[in-house]
Amino acid sequence: MIDVKHLTKWYSQVLAVDNISFRVEKGRIVGFLGPNGAGKSTTLKIITCFLPASSGTVTLNGLDVLSESLAVRRQIGYMPENVPLYEEMRVREYLTFRAALRDIPAKRRPAAIDRVCERCWLSSPEDMTRRRLGELSRGYKQRVGLAEVLLHNPPVLVLDEPTIGLDPAQIRAMRELIRELSGDHTVIFSSHILAEVEQTCDDIIIIAGGRLAAAGTPAELRQRVAGPSRIVAELKGAAPEDIAKGVEGLAGISAVESSQHNHWTRLDIQAGDDDPRKDIFQLAKTQNWDLRELRRATGSLEDFFVQITYEQSMRTDRAAG
Amino acid sequence: MGKTFSIARRELAGYFYSPLAYVIGALFLCVCAFKFAPPPGFISGSREWFILVPHQQASLRTLFEMMGAAMVVAAPLLTMRLLSEEFHVGTIETLMTAPVTDAQVVLGKFLGVLGFYLALLGSTLMFLVLMFIFARPDIGVVVMGYLGMILLGAAFLAVGLFASSLTRHQLLAAAAAIVILAFFSLLMSPAAAHLGEPWNQAAARLNAMNYLKSFARGLFDSRAVVFFLALTGGFLFLSIKMVESRRWR
Predict the structure, then answer these.
(1) CB-CB under 8 Å, B89 with A101
(2) pLDDT band at B182 (very low <50, low <70, confident <90, very high)
(3) Tell me, what's the ipTM?
(4) Which side of chain A, N or C, has fewer Cβ within a 10 Å radius?
(5) B4 to chain A: closest CA residue
């Protein structure tokens, strides 16, 4: 559906997107995740034909965003970050204007507007369609932006930070709406909040510092970031050094760190691919140690995300310094 | 064509929501009214400058000339927001990601401001009504004068639109447009007077006010028509190229 190949974007001297490639399949919800300034918005602006790429190509259904720009734009609904609107216009007036730009015939415009207003909670419970856009609250502006995007029922929706600035109830409603849209629509939305992307998306693309950090389904990513397993064990019954040495002697264990917690020795064990928990238990049994905890700690997606965010900030600090 | 008109209509409606447009319109009409029918206390030494003065031949000729000069400032103030505001607020992003061409955007905006200008020019017709009541105006001067004003207005608004495509700051856009328009009007009469051959000829040819003067005398000057249309077309073309260039910078 959408093919991004070796996409690179320079803003004069600043490299915003650095050789990114990915593919988005039809009907999927794709979360574009990354810390602020990672290059998310820039990538989305290139996909939606607003900015040209410095190098690399983007195609949508085989249409190139540069040479067949108008055809691509017809198939995309794009909601920019912060939803810029013409403040002096009224909601319905604005949607009518946008419907005209979107090639919706004059006769079908009122019905299309009614449909999207209802879907984006603009006509009920409270009728906002006659309000001026400048008077609307952040949440309502966001809804108008989304209503506009849905007007011409495009196969591809590109939403840049659709939940930023919304309150928790609105965030949940927006998330549900995005979920509902999958199936007939391919949705790409960006966010810097992991939980949001993890809950809503079929696929996650993580970018940081302009580079692709990871891509896959949430489950795949979780598995990948978990890495070699880490075992936590708490034992008692011998000197801490002896316990640590005993465990370290087991097969497949690469490193052990021990600490004291009220007479219990807590071990932080780095293991290889094999799960050594059974061996640790057997060891405790033969040595007659007490065992009160033995568990496998999996790395969370959050740890991974925090880590790449941290790495990016270190890089930018170094570049700035 | 439909999308061009949709953009034009939105733009035109925007002027009627904008306080600034009313202020510019009101000032323009006030200055015209002052010249046309001065309050009695103001008629002193320079009686000829005013139009509706007792015991003096009344002609709309000088009114058109003054309206043309006023447009050097009024046109940039009307056009400054056309593209600058889109850049500043970010609505350019939604506009340019819709299936519209750069030319449709520029032409739509141009037609929108031209519509507001024609409405403004239309309201000066009240002076004409007064002329018909109190005097016997020359029909040729009236028709050609208004034709000249329409052509000059279109050209000046195109210049203003071009200036607005250069920057996201409205005041910079207005300043740039005033400089360009001053070049084609105020600057050219001293240049024509002081420069030697053949530059003084060129300066006289580049002076928009000279062309307006011939219209205001009731003459149809095809050179003037070509001059104003070329200015309009040229600056609209440059505006389209500026909007396009955003994709390559």
Answers:
(1) no
(2) very high
(3) 0.88
(4) C
(5) A101
